[in-house]
Amino acid sequence: MNIKVGILGDARGWHLILGQEGIPYETVNGELTPENYSAVVASDDADDRECEMLRQYLQLGGSVLCSSTVYARIRQSTYQQTLIRYLLPDADSAFADVGLIDVRARCRLAWNANELKTDAGVYSAHIGRHEAGYIVALPFDPSTVAFDFRSSFKSFYSPEDRLPFERVSFYNKSNIRRLVARSLESLHHARGLPFVHWWYFPKNAPSVGILRVDTDEGTPDEIRQLHALAKELKVPMTWFVDVENQEPSLETFKWMDSQEVGLHCYEHKVHEGYASAERDMKLGLTRLKEVNIQAAGYAAPYGRWDADVGRAVQNLGFEYSSEFSYDYDNLPSFPLLHGEASKALQIPVHPICIGSLKRQGYFSEQMKSYFRYVVEEKLAAGEPLAFYHHPKDGNPEVLRSVVDAVRDRHVEFLTMKAFGGWWKKRSETSADVEYSNRTLALGNLKTAADAWVEITLADGNETIVPPRSIIAIDSIHWERRINRRKIPHDYARCRRFNYRVPLTRGVDGLMGLLKRTKGGMSG
After folding, report:
1. Is 90 exceeded by the pLDDT of residue 333?
2. Nearest to 210 by CA among 330, 367, 313, 97
3. Which of 84, 285, 312, 319 could connect to 103 by a Cys-Cys bridge, CB 3.0–4.6 Å?
4. In this predicted structure, what is the pLDDT of residue 511?
């Protein structure tokens, strides 16, 4: 029995999601049988021949993840259409730890939906038997999210009444990825098969810590103070330099011990179009090279990313970039540029910083509480503990608290370059996985030294082990799996209207206009 996910229809979005998860997969090649493929994912553009293949596969006892559109074609039945703002699973759901999923689109609901409640309180997805097999039918095709580069302002849940906000990716791609992973895990377990994938962090580490610094108009004193704190805490931060503002003191960054230096921009503004973005990046790189700084990473001003920025990042040879308008609170990925995976990695961070909270009137202790909540949330969700900061944000006691919260959970801090380098090696790992007689056989094994394997079983046990040619289920240590992610009962309030978003944006726009007017008059 092969432990491998087959893909039918457009495979590009599935490649991105399944690659993040580290699940063995391939586009269906040859005969589609339950022995050849432990589960199958199908895109909405699967044709009639492929839908007939799915019918026969299910009749033989296979497991399928698809949208309600494909499910209706398999059943040759109808579906209901409705507008969905978001999905939120019940506390006892198979998807309980997935979290809230932004949708904001017209979707198709399975006629026998029994999972994932919409904002209107009705179920939208179906999990259950079909013929001799099993199916998960979602209200949308999750693979299409990989092609969506839109962004919007969103509020983020906080233990406090005031909710911080930021312009981020239109979809919360991490929760959609997790929805796919939980669906495939359930489908494997329904067949009595183990679910196997490459673990997200080196060896069996619970996560990694990352502190990104955008230097945005930071003064030399502010930057020296933050660097002194980094040295005191022994934290390798990743500094993205806004070169024009820092040009008189660029050599400061050259002598930073155990720190990484990347490029934020030359001129700190949103650059429209490929030519403008590339020109600004080239100028910034030139200035950094003049003081012998080689930047491996890039982070666009205001976290703004589009395909033009992505192409410029790739064409100029950056190893990675980090923009929360592309993705946030997620595992790294290789963005699809004109349908092809970028060579430059995208490393997401949490998009709320100390400065964001200060604008909402948070006191120091409230900030500490917020970040402690986020640390626990991200740890339970299996995400990197990646945060960002500005020298002008100040509040070193809050940053110190963030570092303590990460280290209290026995998580090691890495630079973005170090984690990105490891992730690329993980992305190149592969194995042919076969299962029989409670034994996993890993053939043609190609792996990095620190890439381990997570295995979960239908009885609720899980383990993370080094990969080897033979893994006997009954001879390794297992732990009882628990639902580590607890979604607060009032979580949906972060999707209600937040009057502070238009109010704060209006004030920011006015202050920007006054600043430009003053600058023009003084000039």
Report:
1. yes
2. 330
3. 84
4. 67
